[in-house]
Amino acid sequence: MKLRVTVMPKNGVLDPQGKAIQQALGGLGFAGVEDVRAGKVIILDVAETDAAAAKAAGEEMARKLLANTVIESFTVEAI
């Protein structure tokens, strides 16, 4: 089963990468981009066949390694 883990900075946490992207877009002529938040997407192919168990395993992986839960939030979904 494949899982998609999306990790994003929590609201209120500074996102320098997002700001750099926002400024670069403005420099390329894309006016009106008011905010950019940059995160990461991780695709996992796990041996689990039960969707609920796979999602629970993905959430545990995110809490322990894939996300810094102090400053990042994450979602896990089966794909």
What can you tell me about this protein's structure?
- The protein has 79 residues and is α+β, with helices and mostly antiparallel strands.
- It has a single domain, classed as Phosphoribosylformylglycinamidine synthase subunit PurS (Mth169, Chain: A), CATH 3.30.1280.
- The chain is 35% helix and 27% strand.
- The protein is built from two helices and three strands, in the order βαβαβ.
- Strands 2-1-3 form a three-stranded antiparallel β-sheet, covered by helices on one side.
- The radius of gyration is 16 Å and the shape is elongated.
- The termini are close together.
- The mean pLDDT is 97.
Layout of strands and helices, then pairs:
Layout: E1 2-9, H1 16-27, E2 40-45, H2 51-66, E3 72-78
Antiparallel strand pairs: 1-2, 1-3
Brief summary of the model shown:
With 79 residues, the protein is of the alpha+beta class. It is built from two helices and three strands. The protein has a three-stranded antiparallel beta sheet with strand order 2-1-3, covered by helices on one side.
Strand order of the largest sheet: 2-1-3
If you average the pLDDT, what whole number results?
97
- Helices and strands: which structural class? alpha+beta
Provide the number of structural domains.
1
Q: Briefly note the CATH topology name.
A: Mth169, Chain: A
From the spread of the alpha carbons, the general shape counts as elongated
Task: Give the helices and strands as they follow along the chain.
Answer: EHEHE
What characterizes the major β-sheet?
Answer: 3 strands, antiparallel
What CATH architecture would you give?
2-Layer Sandwich
Quaternary status: single chain
